[in-house]
Design the sequence.
């Protein structure tokens, strides 16, 4: 059934139409068959169910019977035991019996009772055996019944199978019929449709044919018309063309005439050209020959040129080698010269020093003598002469000892002190540099700014200890350490720094104001690198010449811009109160340090150049040393010498007189001694009137009186 | 010579002389037993040889050499009248070997038949046997006691003479040697004993049970195990169940027509949740309400069992209600048979609830119970909204004709719906 149903369903799926006769038929058949199958199964299984029921009933009865039997058996056992006890109890009675009759009677009774008991038991056994027999019979019956059932079952199954087969066949037939019918219908339908379609098609075809015929006729008519038209056109065209032909023929003849004329002309030309050609060939051969000659000449020249080239190259090589050698020699000589110059300078200084020492010693002697004369002889107050050369040691014209940057800073900060010297140097340089003219105020401002803003360059330890100091000192200390960090040691560097600040500011302003945007920017770019050496040289008068040379070179290169340069510088200097913002300081410092390192490099190279000294002042110097004692004083000394000689004479006279006096005194004292001897002798006392008595006693010791 | 022969013998013709190949094939067929040549022949020659080979050739030669179905078909049809190939995996060879082995086992008499008869067959048939259906095991013959027994047969056969050697053939060696065995149907009993009936012939001893249980445990591919009409009691059931616990393949277990009581049922209940059982048949046993309750407990937790048969037991209302309660939670069981179980109205009441809630049950059988008219009505009420049930057997259940008819209508409608659903489903899949 399932298979059938599925087949049907598959068919349905293929056809995809729900309400179709075949489908309906299949569904009906399926349902009928299912019902039939169910009924059949029911019928067959009914037997099993019935058997089950019988079995359960039998079991229930069995259980009941079993219960009854057990009860019965128990009852029986109870009653029999009771009876048996009764019997046994009577045996005891029997023992007491003495009368035989009674005993016999009793025994009889006992026998009867035992028999009764046995009979009952036997009966029970019989009953049970009967039951067993019944059971056997029942078993046989049950077996029979079961075999019947099985037969019935088989019968029913067979019947069922037959029935099912029959119905299946029937249904199959029905379904097939339904399908057949449907198919036939479908066929009919399709055929009808087909025929209709064919008819419609035929009709349409006919229509098309008619339409085509009509069109063909139309086209034919059109064709005829066109033909006639074309013929007319053709005729007219023909006439026109004939006319054209005639015209053209006429023209052709004209052209022919022209052609002949031309031909003659051309022939003539040809002749001329041939002649020319011949001439040309001659000329060409000549030229060829010439060309060959020239070629050989050229070759000769080329070889010559090559030879010369070689020669020159060799020469060149040798000259280059010479040049190299000479330059090497030159360098060597230079080096030696430098070395000698240095050694000369050293020797010079040594000799100078020695001479100077000697001169100074002499001078000192003279001065000392002068002093002695003045103080001791003349009693005048002596004043030590103050001359510029007195303090000079070493060769004249030595560099001014450079002040340290910090010192300068200190100076700058304490405005108004040590200005003179600086101005002097400025004058010595002879060229007014705007840098030096930066107002002190501005410089001070800048330095203060630097010290305030670049505290990070100072060591923290130092910074802490600075707190205790005053403002001015603190600034100084700070600057000191900042300069150490930036490696600024000379005053030049400091000037550069300040100058850089100002320039930077100026540039800033130029950018902001745009006043001399073009010029300023250009000169800045052109001059900045060139300016530095000149700026640097300003600090060292000894290197002036070199810088001058540099300046000269510069002048040649950019003399035109010099004027421009000066004007902004002056303007720069005239901006005393340039305000520099604190924030810009670091930026400027950074830019400065970057540029500064480059400068240092240049600086070193510049320093190598030997410094040449001038000896113009030397004569003067030595002259001055010689005339340390002025002319009037020498005159004084002469006069003094005369006076002293006179004085000396007097003194010598006095000395001789003194010697005389001493001699006389000695004689006197000798006489005194003699006198005293005489007086003190014994004779005196013997005399009645000693001379002593009347003589002055004062005469006794003339030495004392002296 | 030919001409001479032709002239001499007018009946002689060249056509009657067989071809050499024919002769060779003939020879091969005649000597197949000693020198089996088959694989080296051309296909058409193979065909011829196979068609003409004798069916009486020893199996040792043919078993592993010939795989041709037609040959084995001839063997089968010559040996047995009824041959239903569909029961044997549509393979004649399988059928032949299975039935051959079954015949040998049926006729095997322990201590008398040579066990080698079976053992020799094992290497030949082990690749083809998938199912063993043995409905007879002969007990050992005891000649000395047999005469005695004849005398004593009247007084009672259950005399203690057969403790030792009445065990049946031990299947262990055979079963474990068959790697493809999937089904095992056994009945320890004697067929066609007729008037020689003795209780003794139907004794499934404890030793037998032990051997069988161990053998089944070793048989890892076993899917179906049936042990029917063999006097399996509680102890033996427990022994079997202990060995079947956590069996990797077992799907169907049939212990019908035995003597299983509540304890055995409890053991089986334990087995349900420790295996992959899908079908369990315990019909015609002596399971009472305790056993049914144990089964119900197992059923409530189970998710593999799809069919349960408790026909002809004594479950009664207590057990029926327990099973009904289990079915309120169970969602896998599809078919349950509670026929002839002395059930009555309370069970019907509970099952009406089950019918209203459960959507997996498709088949219920309550035949031969005492459900009563009210019980039938309650079942009808419960069934009113059920769409899953397609089979509901209430024959001889005292529910009244009208109720039965109405229930039948509902079930029929459900069945139609299910059929349509199953038709729609594959069609949807096809699209």
Sequence:
């Amino acid at each position: 059934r399932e298979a059938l149903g599925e087949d049907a369903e598959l068919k349905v799926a293929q056809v995809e139409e729900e309400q179709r006769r075949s489908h309906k038929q299949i569904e009906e058949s399926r349902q009928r068959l299912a019902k039939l199958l169910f009924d059949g199964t029911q019928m067959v299984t009914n037997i099993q169910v019935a058997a089950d029921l019988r079995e359960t009933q039998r079991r229930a009865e069995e259980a009941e019977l079993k219960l009854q039997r057990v009860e019965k058996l128990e009852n029986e056992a109870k009653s029999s035991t009771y009876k048996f006890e009764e019997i046994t109890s009577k045996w005891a009675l029997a023992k007491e019996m003495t009368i035989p009759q009674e005993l016999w009677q009793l025994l009889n009774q006992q026998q009867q009772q035992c028999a009764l008991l046995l009979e009952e038991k036997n009966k029970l056994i019989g009953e049970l055996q009967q039951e067993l027999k019944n059971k056997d019979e029942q078993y046989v019956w049950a077996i029979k019944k079961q075999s019947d059932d099985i037969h019935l079952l088989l019968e029913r199954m067979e019947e069922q199978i037959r029935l099912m087969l029959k119905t299946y066949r029937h249904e199959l037939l029905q379904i097939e019929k339904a399908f057949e019918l449907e198919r036939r219908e479908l066929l009919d339908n399709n055929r009808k449709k087909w025929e209709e379609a064919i008819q419609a098609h035929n009709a349409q075809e006919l229509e098309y044919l008619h339409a085509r015929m009509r069109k063909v006729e139309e086209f034919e008519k059109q064709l005829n018309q066109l033909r006639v038209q074309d013929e007319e056109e053709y005729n007219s065209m023909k006439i026109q063309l004939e006319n054209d032909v005639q015209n053209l023929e006429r023209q052709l003849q004209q052209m022919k005439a022209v052609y002949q004329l031309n031909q003659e002309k051309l022939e003539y030309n040809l002749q001329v050209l041939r002649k020319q050609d011949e001439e040309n060939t001659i000329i060409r051969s000549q030229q060829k020959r010439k060309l060959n000659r020239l070629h050989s000449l050229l070759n000769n020249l080329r070889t010559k040129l090559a030879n010369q080239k070689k020669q020159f190259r060799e020469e060149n090589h040798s000259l280059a080698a010479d040049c190299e050698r000479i330059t090497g020699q030159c360098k060597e000589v230079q080096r030696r010269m430098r070395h000698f110059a240095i050694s000369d300078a050293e020797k010079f200084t040594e000799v100078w020093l020695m001479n100077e020492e000697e001169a100074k010693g002499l001078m000192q002697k003279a001065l000392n003598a002068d002093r002695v004369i003045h103080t001791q002889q003349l009693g005048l107050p002596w004043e030590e002469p103050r001359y510029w050369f007195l303090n000079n040691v070493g060769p004249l014209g030595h560099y001014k000892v450079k002040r340290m940057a910090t010192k300068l800073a200190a100076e700058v900060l304490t405005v108004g002190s040590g200005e003179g010297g600086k101005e002097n140097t400025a004058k010595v340089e002879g060229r007014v540099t705007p840098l030096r003219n930066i107002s002190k105020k501005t410089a001070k401002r800048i330095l203060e700014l630097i010290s305030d803003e670049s505290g990070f360059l100072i060591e923290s330890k130092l910074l802490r200890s600075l707190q205790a100091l005053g403002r001015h000192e603190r600034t100084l200390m700070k600057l000191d350490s900042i300069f150490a960090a930036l490696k600024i040691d000379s005053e030049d560097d400091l000037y550069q720094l300040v100058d850089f600040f100002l320039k930077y500011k100026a540039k800033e302003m130029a950018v902001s104001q745009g006043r001399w945007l073009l010029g300023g920017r250009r000169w800045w770019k052109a001059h900045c690198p060139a300016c530095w050496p000149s700026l640097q040289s300003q600090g060292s008068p000894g290197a002036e010449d070199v810088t001058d040379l540099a300046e000269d070179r510069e002048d040649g290169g950019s003399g035109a811009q010099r004027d421009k340069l000066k004007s902004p510088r002056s303007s720069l200097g005239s901006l005393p109160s340039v305000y520099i913002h604190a924030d810009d300081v670091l930026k400027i410092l950074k830019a400065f340090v970057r540029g500064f390192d480059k400068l240092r490099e240049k600086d070193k190279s510049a320093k190598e150049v030997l410094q040449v000294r001038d000896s113009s002042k030397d004569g003067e110097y030595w002259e001055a040393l010689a005339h340390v004692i002025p002319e009037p004083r020498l005159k004084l000394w002469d006069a003094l010498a005369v006076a002293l000689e006179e004085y000396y004479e007097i003194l010598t006279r006095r000395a001789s007189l003194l010697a005389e006096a001493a001699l006389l005194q000695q004689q006197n004292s000798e006489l005194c001694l003699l006198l005293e001897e005489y007086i003190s002798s014994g004779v005196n006392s013997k005399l009645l009137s000693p001379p002593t008595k009347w003589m002055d006693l004062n005469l006794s010791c003339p030495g004392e009186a002296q | 010579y030919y001409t001479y022969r032709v002239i001499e013998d007018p009946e002689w013709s060249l056509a009657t002389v067989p071809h050499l190949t024919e002769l060779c094939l003939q020879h091969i067929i005649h000597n197949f037993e000693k020198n089996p040549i088959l694989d080296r022949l051309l296909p058409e020659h193979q065909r011829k040889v196979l068609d003409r080979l004798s069916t009486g050739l020893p199996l040792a030669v043919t078993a592993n050499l010939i795989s041709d179905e037609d040959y084995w078909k001839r063997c089968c049809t010559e040996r047995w009248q009824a041959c239903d190939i569909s029961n044997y995996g549509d393979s004649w060879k399988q059928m032949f070997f299975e039935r051959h082995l079954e015949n040998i086992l049926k006729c095997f008499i322990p201590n008398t038949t040579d066990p080698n008869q079976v053992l020799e067959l094992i290497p030949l048939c082990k690749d083809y046997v998938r199912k063993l259906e043995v409905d007879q095991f002969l007990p050992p013959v005891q000649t000395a006691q047999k005469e005695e027994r004849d005398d004593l047969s009247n007084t009672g056969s259950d005399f203690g003479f057969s403790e030792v050697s009445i065990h049946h053939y031990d299947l262990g060696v055979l079963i474990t040697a068959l790697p493809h065995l999937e089904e095992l149907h056994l009945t320890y009993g004697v067929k066609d004993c007729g008037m020689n009936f003795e209780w003794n012939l139907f004794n499934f001893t404890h030793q037998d049970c032990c051997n069988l249980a161990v053998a089944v445990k070793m048989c890892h591919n076993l899917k179906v195990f049936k042990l029917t009409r063999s006097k399996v009691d509680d102890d033996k059931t427990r022994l079997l169940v202990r060995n079947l616990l956590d069996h990797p393949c077992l799907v169907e277990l049939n212990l019908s027509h035995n003597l299983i009581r509540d304890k055995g049922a409890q053991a089986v209940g334990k087995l349900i949740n420790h295996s992959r059982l899908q079908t369990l048949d315990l019909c015609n046993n002596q399971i009472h309400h305790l056993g049914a309750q144990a089964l119900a407990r197992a059923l409530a937790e189970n998710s593999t069992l799809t069919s349960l048969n408790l026909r002809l037991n004594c479950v009664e209302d207590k057990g029926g209600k327990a099973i009904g309660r289990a079915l309120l939670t169970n969602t896998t069981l599809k078919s349950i048979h509670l026929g002839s179980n002395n059930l009555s109205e309370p069970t019907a009441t509970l099952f009406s609830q089950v019918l209203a809630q459960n959507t997996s049950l498709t088949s219920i059988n309550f035949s031969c119970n005492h459900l009563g008219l009210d019980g039938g009505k309650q079942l009808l009420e419960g069934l009113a909204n059920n769409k899953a049930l397609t089979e509901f057997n209430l024959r001889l259940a005292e529910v009244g004709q009208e109720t039965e008819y109405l229930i039948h209508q509902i079930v029929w409608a459900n069945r139609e719906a299910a059929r349509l659903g199953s038709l729609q489903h594959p069609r949807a899949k096809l699209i």
Remarks:
- Chain A touches chain B through 14 residues (CB under 8 Å).
- Chain A is about 85% helix and 0% strand.
